[in-house]
TrEMBL record:
Catalytic class of the enzyme: transferase
Organism: Rhizobium phaseoli
Protein name: Phosphatidate cytidylyltransferase
Gene Ontology cellular component list: plasma membrane
PROSITE patterns for the chain: CDS (PS01315)
Pfam families with a match to the protein in the record: CTP_transf_1
Amino acid sequence: MQQELKLRIVSGLILAAIVLAATWYGGFAFRILAAVIGLLIYYEWSTISGIARDWVANTVGWIGQAAIAFLVLIGNFEFAAGMLVGVTAVGIALIILHGTSRWLPVGLFYAGATGLVLAAIRSDDRPGLYAMLFVFAVVWATDILAYFIGRALGGPKLAPSISPGKTWSGAVGGAVSAVAAGVVLVHFLLPGAEVIAAVAALVLSVCSQSGDLFESFIKRKFGVKDSSRLIPGHGGVMDRVDGLIFACFSALLLAGLFSLIKGTAMTSLGAALFGL
């Protein structure tokens, strides 16, 4: 157990250093990270869902994911979004024409959208850096504090049929911690935006926990403990970014909503979220 814990800590620190360095530099460095995460998620999804055994569906899936990753790398997010819609539509067509698993289009969208939304949130400007750091702070505070508060307080289970270990006390504690972390970060980065940060943090925390439950459902559905063994001591990429994915999706929707309310064009997710 001690050896496993050491391995988990070391690999976690290395991953955190890579992610934070790429986030700080932004640009092509972060787009590489986003594209790789998307591709690895598709690899894990296709493996645990059995899509990898259907060579037609899997070939189409990999071609589509490679195209999306390339467009993310060169920063063409509009074409990447169009490709994502097209690839997902092809996945649906394969269900009808080829008898492919219904999990193919879900996985295509889930993996492709992850890389695209991550890169779009970070973008290449300072508001993008702030937005990405905000999302990380909210998701990490949710994950860490939900675990410790849930263990300390116990109580009724949140979703016992999906994830027996999660409790309502942990969920509420994680959400409160996320709001606190988001507000503190924004207070130092963008004084005056604390109220909108609190609202955004609460929404992102709830969505992050929903993403965690979604992946638990997927793993329970296919009878696997971890999405893969790519990360020593941690399992797979999906195991580490499940909450982050849903939080990023919700950040995108929030940014669009805030832009709509203000009547302005959404130039950057960071700018839309915090009014920059």
